[in-house]
Amino acid sequence: MKRVLILVAVAAFAMVAFGQSAKDTFVWQTFGGVDTLDPAMAYDTSSGTILENVYEPLMGYKGDSASEYAPRLATGVTVSQDGKTVTYTLRKGVKFQSGNDFTCKDVAYTIKRDLVTNNPASAIWFLAQPFTGSAANASDALGKDATDADYAKYWKMIDGAVTCPDDYTAVMHLHAADPAFLAKMAFPAAYPIDSKWAIANGAWDGTEATWRKYIGQDGHNTYLNDHASGTGAYQLVSWTPGQRVVLKANENYWGGAPAIKNVLYQIVDDQNARILALKNGDADRISLGSLSALSQVEGLPGVKVYNRNGDLGWTSVTVGAVSMNEKIKADNNPSIGSGKLDGKGIPPDFFTDVHVRKCFNYAFDYQAYIKQVLLGMGNTINFLLPPSFLGYDKNVPEYTFDLEKAAAECKLAWNGQLWSNGMKLVISYNTGNLQRQTVADILKSNLEYLNPKFNVEVRGIAWPDFLAAQRAKELPVYISGWAPDYADPDNYVTTYYDGENGYYAAYEGFNNAQMNQIVRQAATETNPEARKLLYSQAAHLAYDLAPYINLPQQRPMMELRSDVQGVYLNPMYSGQFLWKDISK
User: Fold this and answer.
1) What is the arithmetic mean of pLDDT over 176-185?
2) Residue 14 has pLDDT above 60, yes or no
3) Tell me: the pLDDT tens digits for 151-163?
């Protein structure tokens, strides 16, 4: 990309920052930061927000529906009777932002590259399952003793995952039928990338001769991490990590040039600054880090709070949790202090004791969080699955705030050593997220109240660094959330409770054989009533094992300038709506 275009665009947005955003410009101020622009690596909502506007799925969601699909890069799709062959008819005349033509070769390359790389920190695990029968990449699936013949066989499976009878027909060959496959293909990891452009810039060349070199590749160190060539309505101008992403309309977009010509996705960790920007019209949308600030936004001239009173019927599909890492990184990790249960730290396996986990669950004040932080607009959950999804059992017990029970559990932990020796640990959250900071503060206050030998530090970490520390398993306790990748209960339950295939379960070292068996059976069960029973069993077991503190859900809302038109909420979009659908 030519530097002059970047400089001009940045200068234009610099002027916007000091006055009301223009009619053809959309400014969203949020906190956190984008992690990566590589669809094969992105697994956070900030990155997803950018990707879902720069790249596109074959079949996308229809408006605000999470269960209906509409043509995007494909004009139609058919599924064979046995569910193992899925055929997409591709749209003709589409070009990538590089100028290259979009054809089946790009679809095939994208899926095969996903299956080849499949970094453990990425979302490829749930795409890999229907194609290969395993969530893991080739090296992890085959094991350290695998032979060249084993790899050759695995390559044949990857190479046959997608075939192209012609330039505009893509045929997916699945290992087994997957009722959630179309939903999985609507996630950014499956959005077709520009194969010619990617290969020219150092990505895997698509051949058997080189594929093993790219297994498990961390895309953060590649050209595709901070460059993009999609088919979407917007194209990347520049990305300054931790500060902003600048985008402009793709005037050659096959769906017609969008009304909004410029987008500034700006990282502003100071919530008061974000609110002031919304008030002055310098921002068209902001993200609130705490609902306690809602009173500063409500009633502002020219500002609209969507679904404030639940009048739009939006229900939350996001869940949040406090994770307690059972396999903390031991070497050179300041977050565990001495690394021993001596009052100056905690051992790396500290949370393997179920009494510790139960103590922490009883030490969190759920109702105070709902009242003080969610302003009464929230509800407790007994399992990390939204109550609106198939399989949620309201009869499963849940933990409540009880300091006597918390103390009793802590006294049992580590044969009494925790209570007698004390502990020192760190609870981490992503900087700028005041709600998560409050979660940490509530837990810190109550744990330290239990025993003067308990020393808890609350630490804010910038979003990209937070994700990096999470991937490295350096965080003993951390607060995070989950927005669904695809509209199926499996996306939540596998994520949190499958110790080998689950994103959060793997990072926090939670791995229970009985739970794994239940979760995997539920994922492939086609009978809804049978699935309900399995998820109920999983929820009861989760209560007994207490691997997480389940945070209350809050009512979904959005805060925008009232002159922004076309706003809707599709819970499957990281940004809730696509920028091409709005105007001012």
Assistant:
1) 89
2) no
3) 999 999 999 999 9
Tokens of 422: 């004390």
H or E segment to which residue 378 belongs: strand 378-379
Cβ contact 406:363 at 8 Å: yes
| Residues pairing with 554 in the sheet | 378
Q: How far, in Å, CA of 365 to CA of 372, rounded?
A: 11
Tokens of 379: 């509800």
For 237-271, letters b (16+ CB in 10 Å) and e give bbbebeebbbbbbbeebbeeebbbbbbbbbbbbeb
* Residue with tokens 């308990």, as numbered in its chain: 454
The CATH number of domain 56-215, selected from 1.10.3470.10, 3.90.76.10, 3.90.180.10, 2.60.120.200: 3.90.76.10
Beta-bridge partners for 480: 321
Selection from 577, 581, 580, 582 nearest residue 65 by Cα:
577
**Cβ-proximal residues to 546 (8 Å cutoff; 6+ apart), any chain:** 354, 357, 358, 361, 399
Q: 């992690």: which residue's tokens?
A: 35
For the chain, give every residue range classified as CATH 3.10.105.10: 319-554
Pairing of strands 378-379, 285-286: unpaired
Determine the Cα–Cα distance for residues 305 and 558; give it in Å rounded to an integer: 6
Task: Report d(CA 465, CA 504) in Å as an integer.
Answer: 17
State which amino acid sits at residue 535: Y
The answer to whether 381 touches 552, Cβ cutoff 8 Å, is yes
pLDDT tens-digit readout, 49-105 = 999 999 999 999 999 988 899 999 999 999 999 999 999 999 999 999 999 999 999
Statement: residue 457 has pLDDT above 90:
yes
Which DSSP symbol is given to 331?
A: T
Q: Which alpha helices (DSSP H) does 195-269 contain, by range?
A: 195-200
Pairing mode of beta strands 454-461, 423-430: parallel
Q: What is the mean pLDDT of residues 487-496?
A: 92
Given a contact cutoff of 8 angstroms between Cβ atoms, the answer to whether 558 and 569 are in contact is yes
Residue 459 C-beta-side C-alpha neighbours within 13 Å? 18
* Whether the predicted pLDDT of 18 surpasses 70: no
Compute the average pLDDT of residues 437-441: 96
Give ranges for CATH 3.90.76.10 in the chain: 56-215
Q: How many CB atoms lie within 10 A of CB 82?
A: 9
CB 473 within 8 A of CB 509: yes
Q: Determine contact, residues 234/263, Cβ cutoff 8 Å.
A: yes
> Which pTM does this prediction carry?
0.77
Residue 196 corresponds to which amino acid? K
CB-neighbour burial class of residue 460 (10 A; exposed 0-12, middle 13-18, buried 19+): middle
Tell the CATH topology of 1-52+232-311+557-584. Answer: D-Maltodextrin-Binding Protein; domain 2 (3.40.190)
Rounded Cα distance, 36 and 309, in Å:
35
Give CATH 3.40.190.10 domain extents, the chain.
Answer: 1-52+232-311+557-584
Fold of 319-554: Dipeptide-binding Protein; domain 3 (3.10.105)
